[in-house]
Amino acid sequence: MQKFKNITEKREFRTFVFLVAIFVVVGLVNSEFLSLGNIHDSLKSSLLYIVLAVGLTFVLLTGNIDISVGGILGLSAAVSGMILRDGGSILLAIVVAIGIGGLVGLINGLGVTKLKISSFIMTLGMLEITRVVQVIYTDGQWVENLPVAFKQLAQINVLGINLLSILVVTGLILVHLYLIKNKKGRYFSAIGDNQEGAILLGIPVQRYVTYSFVISGVCSALAGLIFASQIGFISTTAGLGIEMTVIAAAVLGGVSLSGGVGSVIGAGIGAIIMISINSALVYMKVPAFWNDAISGTLLIVIVVTDALLARKANKQAKKERLRARVLHEEEVSVDYAK
Amino acid sequence: MLSKIPKWNMALLIILLSEILIFGLINPRFWNISILLNSFNDFIGIAIIGFFVTLVMITGGIDISGGSIIGLTSVVVGILSQVVGLNIWVALVLAILAGGLCGLLNGVLIAYGRVQAMVITLGGMLLYSGIAIVLVGLSGVSAYEGISGFSQGFSNIAYGTVFGIPNSVVLFVVMFVIAYILLHRTKYGRYIFLTGINQNAAEYSGINTKKVIASTYVLSGISAGVAGVMLTSYLGSARADFGGEYLMPILTVVVLGGTLITGGKGGVVGTALASIIVGFMQIGLQMGGVSTQYIGLATGSLLIISVAILGISPEFKNNVRKLVSPKKISGGKV
Q: Which domain of life does this protein belong to (chain B) (predicted)?
């Protein structure tokens, strides 16, 4: 019972309930939305965002932010797409993409830790730079005619479930366990929670902050590969503005932008919510132009409610602590009187 | 006299002058004053939003919704004047007020709801551009072509001149002076700095910091509204996606101008210089035959390098001082 209560009190659980609520409400209007096929499709189209959100969560946990994810996605997708188009092997393309993501992430990380540039500015600059590098490398052309074998990768089904979805969800759970159970995994949220304290505990803060940016870069590159495989071509604006959607997804999932709080599962559920809203509107026959207004309103409402709830809980806890202290003092004085 | 100018602004001024010199040497047409003055139209939106985002950033916040407020005000002007049939000047004032309203929503939620500014303005960014798209969708105007057919008087806002000086330059100067006086010459400005340096201390000294913070977002929203009207007049049509690409340039000019993203330090003079630097760089590179697609590389590198120099300098200087005169640091005799 206690365990069940613990789960329901978690922020991820509330996000999940919200996701289920979306599906139920839309399902009441149009029962097709609740079909397994649609749920499967929703998961499939949010894979890209889940992968980005996982990487971003590492950075957000340390109290930094990474705006360059869209740029890294575009660049790595374009470069590996060109390798594939020119007859290179799929393995090579994957390795190159991960290399690019890791390298840009490393530059971000070193800029933040060694040059002491605020992560917002550093990754903002890298976003612009990676975009231009992509344009220069592709000569401003779209990368098209990707080999069929590569495009098929996103469509393989195992036991009726998309293979890529299985891989991403399994990866998500493993990363979650690493962040929660592993000693080193907990360093990330420790750094974001209290950087000075983390230093005093002997955590190599700078190294782990750099790691977080590298992980985010690699995840963005993987998302780029998923993008290339699912969409089948890479435009020069691939991933434009995606960073804001991903940040919104992470925030929806309960990851705090001030660091230390949040989990990859929450961020992943947040990503599914952001994508499901769009397809939900289609099923409810609402014109597509309502998408942004509705996601924006939802984001604001959820975040503000959450902040108010958290503050109320905080106040309650403080009051209880105070009362406990007063009671304790009374006991002590009674003891003295005896 | 020179020593009174902050070092960073001095550096920006030198960058600006050398930029004008170098681009002029590459293409002498760059030295044509009227071309330079007319180019203000291309970055006026970035500059005037930048002035007031500077105020927001000094209080320790951030406002990334400015670009979408441009699109919203543009659509509001278009729909009120062309679809509803209001007088264009009434529509214009209402549109700027709508921008202020967006800012008010941001400000109230951030200051009184105490939610992170980044999150709220991110939601606001989606919401305001979403409202603009909804308005376009409901009014049945083609989203691609936008709303056009504005009167001559309205397009004169962007194309007119005052004593031979383009209106955009006049607007730039007016908005700069307003922001400068507000921030550097009034009590309100001191409150903004104090709030950014230490909100608790400011609160205890009797400043209504919540009001101060909320008001900066309102100002930023109004400035975005003005920018939206200006852009609509300049381009001659109203579209929901105007200003969408302004997010990064606005933050770039504010940060390049020497305002700390953590708050408490900065100024609008730097923002003004930085916006002219970035604006001139675009025309200069275009005149030099560089494709517009590559300009991001220049602004991106400029941003990172300048912030690295800004951030490193105190530490770096200390180290140099230690190396040069170790005795002074060690304290000498007691």
A: Bacteria
Distances (CA, A) of A64 to A257, B5, B199: 8, 33, 22
Assess if residue B318 is contained within a domain. Answer: no
Residue A3 confidence (pLDDT): 61
Cβ-based contacts of B262 with chain A (< 8 Å): 118
How far, CA to CA in Å, does B208 sit from each of A78, B46, B161, B191, B212?
51, 30, 41, 9, 6
Chain A residues touching residue B134 (CB < 8 angstroms)? 289-290, 293
pLDDT exceeds cutoff 70 at A125: yes
Q: Three-state SS for B151? A: coil
Cβ within 8 Å, pair B113-A307: yes
In words, the CATH class of domain A2-286 is: mainly alpha
B131: which chain A residues are within 8 Å (Cβ-Cβ)? 293
Mean pLDDT of B229-245: 85
Which residue of chain B has the CA closest to A251?
B119
State the pLDDT confidence band at B331, using cuts at 50, 70 and 90. Answer: very low
Flag whether pLDDT at A264 surpasses 50.
yes
| Tally of domains within chain B | 1
Any idea what the Cα angle at residue A96 is, between residues A91 and A99, rounded to 5°?
125
Domain of B58, CATH number, reads: 1.10.3470
Q: Does A118 contact B297 at a Cβ distance shorter than 8 Å?
A: no
Per the structure, the complete domain to which residue B15 belongs is given by 11-23+32-307
Q: Which residues of chain B make contact with A311, given a CB cutoff of 8 A? A: 114
**Best residue in A66, A128, A247 for a mutation probing chain B (most B CBs within 10 Å):** A128
pLDDT at B33 (0 to 100)? 81
Give the pairing of strands B237-238 and B165-166.
unpaired
Question: Does residue A169 carry a pLDDT above 80?
Answer: yes
For an interface test with B, the pick among A114, A122, A129 (most B C-beta atoms closer than 10 Å) comes out as A129
